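Running this now, will post back.
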Amino acid sequence: MALNSALMNERRTFLQALLATALTSGVTSEAAGLPHAADASQAGGSRPLQRQPLSAPFTGMDAAFAEVHVQPGVQGRAHQHSGFVLGYVIEGEYLFAINDESPRVVHAGEMFYEPPGATHSTSASANGQPVKLLAIVIGPQGAPIVTTSER
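Update: finished.
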């Protein structure tokens, strides 16, 4: 149990450092080529934070950071991304699945991963409460973050 707690603290520290980098680098979502979005916390949806080019050995790739709000009773549309996704649940309990697998609950303080080419098939609140998460898409520089949307 102590090892699991230590790993969780390391993940949390890593993601907090990534978020701090995104928020303090001075690159706005508009300057990073991300569309402007309404306040995600009120309407649900995502709020692009930043798009950061990566250096070697990841030259030609970037990290796109977005704050995502999932409102109770709203099921997200199935979609794919231009690269892999690292997600961190900040608040709430997130119902998550890829490729039509059985959904699982990701609690606040936990992470999820979507491999390249996966279809994010389930995205919802697991307990009827709002969910806030940080999504980081690592993919080809300048590529659209969402490449397909289904259903």
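The chain has two helices and ten strands. More later if anyone needs it.
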